[in-house]
Structures are given as structure tokens and as C-alpha cells.
């Protein structure tokens, strides 16, 4: 039988470390030109935040220079960053969004 000491019938558990996938913080950076309402719109549209939550995070970025807007798997974080950067570029705003391993 599995996981016993010899065969005295005593079960011995083997501890196995749980594999967790690495998570990535998506960060929004402040700048002097992107309109506040544009940032709020991005946070609602791509991060599923309410208007109030989006406004709150936008203000943190505006005042502190940077804020974490969400934590995701590598693939989802990469997609969010690309969506934000593409949307900002298409509207000719210099908004920057990056990701870093948690
Ligand atoms: N600082 C910008 C302004 O005063 C607003 C802003 C907030 C820009 C958050 C970028 O990630 C940002 N219009």
C-alpha cells in the first residue's frame, strides 16, 4: 500500500508544495496630459470597475504617480496592458500601462 512505513499499516503523508501560477500586477502611470475622464473610462472599460472605483484609482495615480489597477495571470495582464496602450495611442494620449511580477 502507498505511503506507509514499511508495511506496519501506518499511513505516512508526504507533503507536496502546491504549484501556484505567478501573478502579475498591472500598473497605471501618471502623466501631465491624459485627461482624467479618459483614464476613468479606460478603468471602467478594461478592468470592469464601477465609475466610483475607477475615479478613485485614477486619483491615486494622479496624486502618487502610479497605482496597481489589478492582479492577473501573465496572459490576462499582457492583454490588459496591450488594450490600454492601444486605446491610449489611438486617442493620441501618452498614458502608460505596464505589468510586473507580484
Ligand atoms: N495627471 C492627469 C491630469 O492631470 C490625469 C491622469 C491620471 C493621467 C492618471 C494619467 O494614469 C493617469 N490630466
What would the keywords be for this entry?
42% helix, alpha+beta, 3-stranded antiparallel beta sheet, 3 helices, 102 residues, disordered N terminus, elongated, single chain, binds L-tyrosinamide
**Widest β-sheet, arrangement of strands:** 2-1-3
Query: Which kinds of small molecule does this entry bind, naming each only once?
Result: L-tyrosinamide
Give the number of DSSP strands: 3
Radius of gyration: 22 Å
User: Biggest β-sheet, characterized?
Assistant: 3 strands, antiparallel
Low-confidence segments, given as residue ranges, are 1-6
Average of pLDDT: 92
Indicate the percent of residues in helices.
40-55%
Task: Give the overall silhouette.
Answer: elongated
State the distance separating the first and last CA atoms. 41 Å
Number of helices: 3
Task: Give a structural overview.
This protein is of the alpha+beta class and 102 residues long. Helix content is 42%, strand content 19%. The chain has helices at residues 36-47, 51-64, 74-90; strands at residues 24-29, 66-72, 96-101. A 3-stranded antiparallel sheet has the order 2-1-3. Helix 1 packs across helix 2. The structure holds L-tyrosinamide. L-tyrosinamide is lined by residues 28-32, 34-36, 39, 58, 61-62, 95. L-tyrosinamide binds next to strand 1, helix 1 and helix 2.
How would you summarize this macromolecular structure in one to three sentences?
This protein has 102 residues and is an alpha+beta fold.
List the helices and strands and how they pair.
Elements lengths: L23 E6 L6 H12 L3 H14 L1 E7 L1 H17 L5 E6 L1
